[in-house]
Design a protein that fits this description.
With about 325 residues, this protein is mostly beta strands. It has three domains: about 120 residues, TonB-dependent receptor, plug domain (Ferric Hydroxamate Uptake Protein, Chain A, domain 1); about 80 residues, Alpha-Beta Complex (Aspartate Aminotransferase, domain 1); about 40 residues, no CATH class. It has four helices and 14 strands. A five-stranded mixed beta sheet has the order 1-6-7-4-5. The longest helix has 17 residues. The protein is globular.
Amino acid sequence: MLLRPPPFLFAALTFSSLVHAEDLQLAPVEVTTPEAGAGEVAQAQLKSVPGATNYIDMSSVQQGRVSTNEDVFKYQPGVYAKAANNEGVKLSIRGSGLNRSPGAHASGLYEMFDGLPLTGPGGTPYELKDPLWQSRVEVLRGANGFDQGALALGGAVNYVTHTGYDAPKLQVRYEAGSRGYAQREISSGQVLGDADYYISLTDSESDGYQRQSAATGKGMAANFGYRFNPDLETRFYFRYRETTNDTPGKLTRAPDQPRPACPPTVSTLPAIPSACNQAPPGSPTRPPCSWTTIRAWKSGWPITITRWTCAKAPTASRWPTPISAAP
């Protein structure tokens, strides 16, 4: 048999619960999160792009060797970077810019410093792209770079410099390796109230792995920023670099050759003097004729001169002008 509680008992229990609920107060719960850094914001923006992108955190790259930008893009999918003994890295995305050799102004990519355009009608200079000055590198591969303009045929690359917000107060770095490689850097950056600064001095040198391939470089990068409010700030940038790069030419087999091998000299024999054609070949009356070739130097380049000599017709000998010679 099912027993039901009396109605007045149910009402008393309900009234008692309401009284206890009015006396119970929950402590306030406050949920906070740190402000997202500039790198985190940039990484989130790249992830929102419906295409192929790369985000390179230079703090992880600088744990190893950072001699050129080849080391920056070494492990990035879809990006080809190769240096030939100097800072002029051949950078290519999806085949763009492959017609340019290392050390030349690159084409096919749109490159920027801190969002400011570096690429011009003649290509992109490489001298100012010191990897030690960079905080992060953002890459938009292929057609994703068209947001930056029509010059971004193969993609867009944005090199972001350190600021006082992400740079250590004092940092000293020294790298050394084989073949005379050495790189030095001293930098400083910090936040001073609403202002911040960053400054870096770098110096590098290398003998190269062959003759005429040495390289040296030195420079300075600095920026100063001031934040008026959380939504408004300004920043001033300064970059200066001096680089010297020797580019090796053609090699020679001779180890003691003091200069690169020159193109082969092409020359043809001049016409046989008429004194040698007065009698048919083999005739006893035909004067013996011979020719000699003289190797000479003109303005530092070799030329070839050919001379005909006839035994019975010395007046027929002459010094002709070479048909062609190496430049």
